[in-house]
Amino acid sequence: MQDKIISKAAEALAGKNGVLLIEFLRGKKDVNEFKIAKKLNLTINQARNIIYKLSGKDMLHFTRKKDKRKGWYIYFWTLDVLKALELAKLLVEKEIENQQHLVKSRENKRFYKCAGCSLEMTEETALNHEFICSECGTLLNINEDKTKLLEMQSKMDKLKRELRSINEELGKLREDNLKKSIKTEEKVKKDKKKQKQKLMKKKVRMEKKEKEQRKNKRAQKNTKNKIKKTKKKGKKR
Ligand SMILES: [Zn+2]
């Protein structure tokens, strides 16, 4: 479901090639822009054009590396699933808004139709034409057919279902991300604790060693002093 939603948004932004590009990047990380161009059978400029259409709306993000020999930057692209879903949501919300206007207008306005050439217009436009078809001159009749309204309403329902599934996917993804970040945080804490314990142990070991060294030095000094004293005593005698 998630893939379908993102592909639809990519198509709205960058057409068929936008969809192909997203499909190629799916599940990958940091893909070289030259590789993208090759895979899509496009020139590097054509590929960049599509990339910018998608990255301009944050569907993709990049890292870059300097080519040491040529001195220019090479870009590596990754699909941002969360941003892509958020964008898909915005696009569908916009579509719903437009569709709502159409449905309302269909419900509230009267329409006139030419039986001969099926031309249809609002009552306002029909009045301006004195209820005569501008194509064939036939008298226009009020159009009571509800087919169009029903079609519009069913499209509206479809869009609302789409929005619901986008919200579900977004909810799942945000929850996953939260779990992941909590896990990382816990790991960082655990690692820090381990590190601290390690340092403490080392400190204790060092202190013990220093103590022993001091003790040894004192012992050595004492022995030396004793030897000196004995020597002095020996001289006096
Ligand atoms: Zn007509």
Approximately how much helix is present in the residues?
A: over 70%
Largest β sheet strand count, sense and barrel closure:
3 strands, antiparallel
- Tell me the series of helices and strands, N- to C-terminal: HEHHEEHEEHEH
Low-confidence stretches: none
The radius of gyration over CA amounts to 39 Å
Number of strands: 6
Report strand order across the widest sheet: 1-3-2
Mass-distribution shape: elongated
Mean pLDDT: 94
Query: Hetero groups bound?
Result: zinc ion
Judged by helices, strands and strand pairing, the structural class is mainly alpha
Q: Please work out how many helical segments DSSP would assign.
A: 6
Describe the structure.
The structure is a single chain. The protein is mainly alpha-helical. The protein has 2 domains: 2-79, Arc Repressor Mutant, subunit A (Orthogonal Bundle); 86-187. The protein has helices at residues 2-25, 33-39, 44-55, 81-108, 123-128, 147-236; strands spanning 31-32, 60-66, 73-79, 111-113, 120-122, 141-142. It has a 3-stranded antiparallel sheet. The chain has a 3-stranded antiparallel sheet with strand order 5-4-6. α1 packs across α4 (81-108). The radius of gyration is 39 Å and the shape is elongated. The mean pLDDT is 94. The structure holds zinc ion (ZN). Zinc ion (ZN) binds at residues 114, 116-117, 119, 133, 135-136, 138.
